[in-house]
Amino acid sequence: MVSEAFAMAGNVAAQEGGRPGYETVIMLVLMVAVFYFLLIRPQQKRAKQHKELIEAIKIGDQVVTAGGIHGRVAGLQEEVISLEVATGVKIKVSRSSIVSTQKPAENKEKP
């Protein structure tokens, strides 16, 4: 009697005129689309912006590294940037460790 119930229930989708299996494919496609638009695409956009930032660096720019070091670019090489962090103190950092540039501090007088 149990096997008859399973046999009758297994064909419900076909009896309703639906096509079995398409719901699974549609859900899978929707999940891939959500992952693409919420995770993959924004990460690619950030990577592109970081690459443009690294390529635009020139001598004299004020930059901040991933470690939080602030300095002025004193020298450029292929993969290494020399930063002057204090008068006469220069360090070398990897280009990829630069996370942002800053506008030079202007001398503003407070009233």
What is the strand and helix layout of this fold?
Layout: H1 2-9, H2 12-15, H3 22-56, E1 62-65, E2 70-76, E3 80-86, E4 89-94, E5 98-102
Antiparallel strand pairs: 1-2, 1-5, 2-3, 3-4
Strand content: 25-35%
Largest beta sheet, briefly? 5 strands, antiparallel
Number of strands: 5
Q: Any low-confidence stretches, pLDDT <50, length ≥5?
A: none
Task: Give the spatial strand order of the biggest sheet.
Answer: 4-3-2-1-5
**Any idea how many domains?**
2
Structural description of this entry:
- This protein has 111 residues and is an alpha+beta fold.
- The protein has 2 domains: 1-56; 58-111, Roll (SH3 type barrels).
- Helix content is 42%, strand content 26%.
- The chain has helices at 2-9, 12-15, 22-56; strands spanning 62-65, 70-76, 80-86, 89-94, 98-102.
- A 5-stranded antiparallel β-sheet has the order 4-3-2-1-5, with helices on one face.
- Strand 1 (62-65) and strand 2 form a beta hairpin.
Descriptive key words:
single chain, 111 residues, alpha+beta, SH3 type barrels, five-stranded antiparallel beta sheet, rod-shaped
Offer a quick outline of the entry.
This protein is α+β, with helices and mostly antiparallel strands. The chain has 3 helices and 5 strands.
